[in-house]
Amino acid sequence: MAGTDDAVAAGDDELYVLTAVLLTPAKFPSVLGDDYVEACAALGLAPLADGYGLVLGQDAQGARWTVVVDDVSLVAVAIASWDCGMEYELSPDENSMVAALPGWPLALAVAAPGVPAPHDPDPGPDPEVADMPPLCPPDTRTWGPAQRRLGADEIALQWAEWRSQIDDAQFAADETGQAPEDGVDQDGERIPSTGTHEGIRRVLAEAHGYVDAPPPLGRVRSAFASGDARTLRADGPGWSMVARTDDIAFVLLDDEPGEVLPVGRGAELPSLLEALDKMAVRPV
Known about the structure:
It is built from 7 helices and 12 strands. The chain is of the alpha+beta class.
């Protein structure tokens, strides 16, 4: 998280920086969309190949602003420094600024000290701002695409914890056609077996389709994992999948509220994950 001593220009005002995020094909706030193109569209931005940095903060009146910059490396360095507990003054050059958008696309629980509480900017006489609805975070109070993607994010971050809840014995019968034992949901409750789950079959079929016909940029992403493995993230209409290339996968579905469905390796999954990893976008 940034320090509020950082300030950049937002229109004719200064912005007290609260945080920043990357918006690139390999790393973007998945709550905004199933792929990079969709996430950019949610902010009214063209999906540039190199992506953007999003700087979120408040102006001197406390209004929420999102400053979009094309200096991705600068924002990446700032985020890495903050993650390590180091101070870093994020002050993008004026020439790197693409847009100053009213509002925040993500929910923040922090605010700049010494200014009014966060609020949407007053449109004022500026016609560009007056015609631009302030950005606001997607509604995650009820189960739907945004919450489903956030759930997949959490599994990717806490893989070991989720994996520990799954007994490999439940997948022992996968290749015989028998249904494995039930899995668990996000609250540790029992969920239906994935061996004959129609939703799982649909997800695997659509993921196979990505190998034959590449989907929009960012639908399939590959990130570092332990050892030689990779963490794979794939999303599609109504579904998200998180997997390790050397292990199993977890699937979340829009039409299965709150449920996390494990998918055993069996005979099919390893080759699918290998193919997806080859086509996935990766952090630079």
